[in-house]
Design goal:
Blueprint (H helix, E strand, L loop, with lengths): L6 E13 L4 E13 L3 E5 L6 H8 L7 E6 L2 E2 L5 H8 L3 E4 L11 H11 L6 H10 L15 H12 L6 E5 L7 H18 L2 E6 L2 H4 L4 E6 L2 E5 L1
Parallel strand pairs: 3-8, 3-9, 6-7, 7-8
Antiparallel strand pairs: 1-2, 1-4, 4-5, 9-10
Length: 228
């Protein structure tokens, strides 16, 4: 009998409201969601549909307005900033549309940054091993300007894995790439999910890529309107 997979994310009636000078904006509206260990989920929908806000809540980058949210076994529904940092540090990796690499650092040095901030003993060998996972071990000493856009994003993915990541969140990771590089980057996510069992949640405007994930969720006005 197979072991039941652990629940990585559970949201019930999850709501996030931003209070602006002229109005209140409900970015996530009473959303219910369950993501299990090893899932590969795409969040799809137009700008303003709530994809990024949902990723921020799951990634403990923002606080919940109402409802409940469990992430990696911790209840973050009413968590303070210090508590959110504790949940996301060392367990949640982030990949963004902009690569956010330090131009003066090599690929390996960029990958080492999270470990350095966490005062870990991880060094160059560990960074090169992570680069190997994304097919870039031979580019470890290259500066970002010496890499293609797809290669830079793969360095960013390797960096996101530098702290024993259990949950990888990617916000429009192919948004700045052409179709060939988009396909290559997406294939890295597929491989990390299939071979490493990494839980991946990816927001994308690209319907062709979103349709390749085993599970896809379409959002509109902060709510889930369709799921397959």
């Amino acid at each position: 009998m197979k072991n039941e997979r652990k629940t990585v994310v559970r949201a019930e009636a999850l709501t996030k409201t931003y209070v602006l000078p002229a109005e209140e904006v409900v970015a996530v509206d009473g959303l219910n969601l369950k993501i299990d260990e090893g899932d590969f989920v795409s969040l799809m929908g137009p700008s303003g549909s709530g994809k990024t806000t949902l990723l921020d809540l799951i990634g403990c980058l923002d606080s919940v307005t109402s409802g409940s949210l469990m992430v990696l076994g911790s209840d973050v529904s009413n968590a303070r900033e210090n508590d959110l940092v504790s949940v996301r540090r060392g367990a949640i990796g982030f990949v963004f549309q902009n690569f956010l690499l330090i131009p003066e650092l090599t690929a390996a040095e960029n990958v080492q940054l999270p470990s350095m901030f966490a005062r870990s003993t991880s060094g160059r060998d560990e960074a090169v091993a992570l680069l190997e996972q994304v097919g870039l071990a031979d580019k470890a000493d290259r500066l970002p300007k010496e890499l293609s856009g797809g290669e830079r994003q793969r360095v960013a993915i390797a960096r996101s894995l530098a702290s024993s990541t259990r949950l990888l969140l990617a916000d429009e990771p192919t948004g700045n790439l052409d179709s060939a590089n988009s396909d290559g980057v997406f294939s890295v996510f597929e491989r990390l999910n299939a071979e490493n069992g990494l839980t991946v949640v990816l927001a994308t405007h690209d319907g062709a890529l979103g349709s390749r994930t085993p599970r896809s969720i379409r959002m509109m006005d902060g709510a889930i309107v369709e799921e397959r």
